[in-house]
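Worked problem 6 (solution included).
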Amino acid sequence: MAETMSTGGVKPLLSLHNINMTFGGIKALKDVSFEVLPGEIHCLAGENGSGKSTLIKIITGVYRPEAGAVIEYDGQTFSHMSPVTAQAGGIQVIWQDLALFPEMTVAENIAFHTVIGRWPRLVDYRHMRRTALKALQRLGVALDVDLPLKDYSIAQRQIVAIARALVGEAKLVFMDEPTASLTQSETDHLIDIARSLSVSGVAVVFVSHRLAEVLEISSRITVLRDGALVGVYPVEGMTQSRITELMTGKTFNQQVRAKPVGDEPIVLEVKGLSRPGQFEDISFAVRRGETLGITGLLGAGRTELALSIFGMLKPRSGRVWLNGRPVRFSSNRKAIEAGVAYLSEDRLSLGLIQPQSIADNLAIASLDRIKSGGLLSDERKRRLVDRWIADLGVKIGRQSDAVSTLSGGNQQRIAIAKWLATDPKLLILDAPTVGVDVGARAGIFEIVAKLAECGLAIILISDEVPEVYFNADRVLHMAQGKMAGWFDPRTCSLGQIEAAVYG
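Solution. The predicted structure is:
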């Protein structure tokens, strides 16, 4: 039986009972109950595939639950919601992909709903501008609303999405992985905004795989597992390990994996690498079987450094050696041919081609390896895909299925497999767990550890200090494009690195 906690007599803003949903004979939700109090910050937790998104889509009217469902919202009772009813009632969702328009101005993104109606009419741009400025002022944020959205960072776009929700007179806002692409300082700002919404009476449902944030911001946590309600718990007295256990039904023991690799041959050596405005005078070496962690805040130059090693950006000065030979890649294609692989931090748009098949995504970087007589061989591709899906434990239906049908964790495994299929000497992992749940994260880092054991040199980039602390042999801290310090996880504490990075 699911565990629940008392609401202290406060009448819920939203209350759901007997929610069931089936897709293709598979139960996505099994008799789930869920409630949110007015002005509450509530966490909805669970692994990918646990039913979180399905539940949100039922609340917002995208899906219609099976017969017997009861939805009570703001004093009214429904058997199901419609998108129009949900929006009219002030239910807003900020999805992970934000669903914004990069080419349109900030004002247009925030206020475009105000000009949508049943009949054509002239657009009052001045009114849209005033509406946008008012919404941003409520959040305590100043942005130039006349600039196109594409000119702003992902953190600022997140704020624009929240401002758009406020224009809709939001009473209940769902935030789906809002911090997945944010640095620690940007995350802190977003958490402050969520708190200010709560104080103003707006209820916030926070969906995040970053459990530290869940504990910091929420008052209660609803946990789903395999489509069923595990329970509703107070944050007080809760720990990350306990939430992980509730979400997965398993216990994970975090241990420092760092090991000595000083006797192994150097695979990559970088000396004095600089690119004005992004990073300056960076020097380090990565040995065979070593995992080098690189961490730092926004603007530290981590990704730009990785892209320079991978041939995507051109450094102004400095030298790079691969297996003792000097290299200067003119393109990422040359880097791949030399044995360098790079897993992008943006899996959705850069790491994978979402509409394409699982097989095509996995094989796309290894086309030369699956040729026969100058043509691509379906049989060789099938064998290649079979091998890496088995080796990395990817859960799929058919190779021909679109990669978008997979969970975030399995998509990330396909993205890693794509590069491992090129037989690299050096693998650069840039934020490999973005948007991946805690159970899948553990699986990804098990893969990283096994790859290192097999002799692969790895650079692990993350702004989450625990990821590099527990999974790297050495940690390089970058700040404002410069090397700020080195750490050995065997001889320092997690708190020491966090203090250095987060200040």
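Discussion: The mean pLDDT is 88.
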